[in-house]
Write a structure and sequence with these properties.
Number of strands: 3
Structural class: alpha+beta
Strand content: 5-15%
Radius of gyration: 42 Å
Number of helices: 3
Oligomer: single chain
Strand order of the largest sheet: 1-2-3
Length: 166
């Protein structure tokens, strides 16, 4: 019985011999000289581009009159004025700091303004980890996670932070 190592080496040697024989017996391409043109065409130099900047067509015309020549300076609208802060009540002061939150409701006068005293903490709905905030201006409710990456997520905060850290 012949070893399979010997047979595989014999097959490899036969394939190598076959490729060498085919390479030697393959017809070679005849090398032909390139055809000489009857008339030599003159070489044209590359077209050099101008480095001059081209004027923008919208700025090349002159104004029709002196009033058109002046740049009209429209008065800028004044920045929005924040609403007055809410007056403190005679109740016990709230212990939850809401000075870094604002009301996100579009119809609220206090929308986007921080520290006006219009927000009140309203507990944890359904025993969840996030507080519900109440806006005294528009009587609307929202979670303290509004506008953050945790808003509307059902996963635990620790898991989200761990995934972001990875």
């Amino acid at each position: 019985m012949v070893s399979h190592h010997f047979v595989s080496q014999l097959i490899l040697l036969a394939l190598l011999w076959l490729f060498v024989i085919l390479h030697l017996s393959w017809p070679k391409r005849a090398v032909t000289a390139p055809a000489v043109p009857t008339e030599a065409e003159p070489l044209q130099p590359k077209r050099s581009r101008s480095n001059e900047p081209k004027p923008f067509e919208g700025l090349t015309h002159k104004p029709q009159c002196a009033l058109c020549a002046r740049d009209p300076a429209y008065p800028k609208p004044p920045p929005p004025v924040p609403p007055d802060p809410m007056a403190p009540t005679n109740r016990r002061p709230r212990e939850v700091d809401t000075s870094r939150h604002f009301c996100p409701h579009s119809d609220c006068d206090s929308r986007g303004w921080l520290g006006l005293g219009n927000l009140r903490a309203n507990g944890h709905p359904s025993g969840g980890p996030w507080r519900q905030l109440h806006c005294a201006s528009c009587q609307g409710y929202f979670l303290e996670t509004h506008g953050t990456i945790f808003h509307g997520k059902q996963a635990a905060v620790e898991l989200i932070v761990r995934v972001l850290a990875c």
